[in-house]
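Self-study notes.
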Amino acid sequence: MTIRKSRLSASHRGETGIGSMIILMSLLLVSGSAASLIVDTNNDYTQQAQDTAQEAMAQVATGLEVVDLVGHYRDGNIYSLDILVRLGHGSVPINLEHVIIIVETNTNSLDYTMNSTSVETRFAAKQVCMASGLPLWTDDNPPIIGQGDLVKMTLTCPPVPIGQAASIKMIPAEGHATLETFTVPDNIVGTIVSLH
């Protein structure tokens, strides 16, 4: 058996070089596409993580804070409440049309909304101090409370007699609920009682 040595002619050498170049270019294109896909996926995950973190922070921080609570007294009972509220620190603005207020006494529990069709379960809200720069509430502008704003919410509550306790829970559409409890004092002079 004899081994033959063969030499490539000049024309065959060019074909081998072109084939190698095509393979090299296709490898570069595939690796470039893979790298681009990895970078795009990384950017998508980064954006998703930032959005999730912002939503989580908004859920934790968003809520109302009670500044003052005043009861109106008559015939041995508190029969209505004025609740002065502001946003909690770090809270995003809250539309009060989407807030539910629950008042619980020893014998009764009522849910209040701003747009309730019943007078007994509707609360009213009034802008007291507007420091956020949000527009005044009108038919065209919803009742949104922003950072620095003070709002007085008024509602007619179930009767709470002297010495009894009650609680108020304010629940925004997004964020955490605020719970405020009070006990009607035994010694009341006049018709307005501070309960905070």
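Second protein, same conventions, sequence then structure:
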Amino acid sequence: MRDFLNQFGFTAEELNAFANGDCGYLALALNAATGWDIVVITPIEAAETDFWYHMGVRMPDGRILDIKGTWDTDTFHDLWDSETYEVAIYDHDVEWATESVHKRPTKFPDYDAAVYAGHILDRGKLIDA
């Protein structure tokens, strides 16, 4: 049985790199490989800024994809919910995401986001098409 929060079988270090640091770089790599829209989850009061907690991509069927797996919108929201702030999921274009992501230097330079995007797409066989 696969771990609910590790659908692709990554190590704890790999999950940490793209769940707690470089998720934006992974989302951009997934977008480049698929063309899927960028989504962010962020406090509602920060919606008009470039602050966000987590980034992924929205698949054509509406699910959201990140390093840990594929999620319906409600589950993704619950996974990244905050006790401090009311959060919401927002769709953004790749230009906004690119500018926002590149304001944050990579925390894990040894992990190539494009390589991991390829692993996710390969392991998911285009994510349970």
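Instructor comment on the second fold: The CA atoms of residues 38 and 93 lie 6 Å apart.
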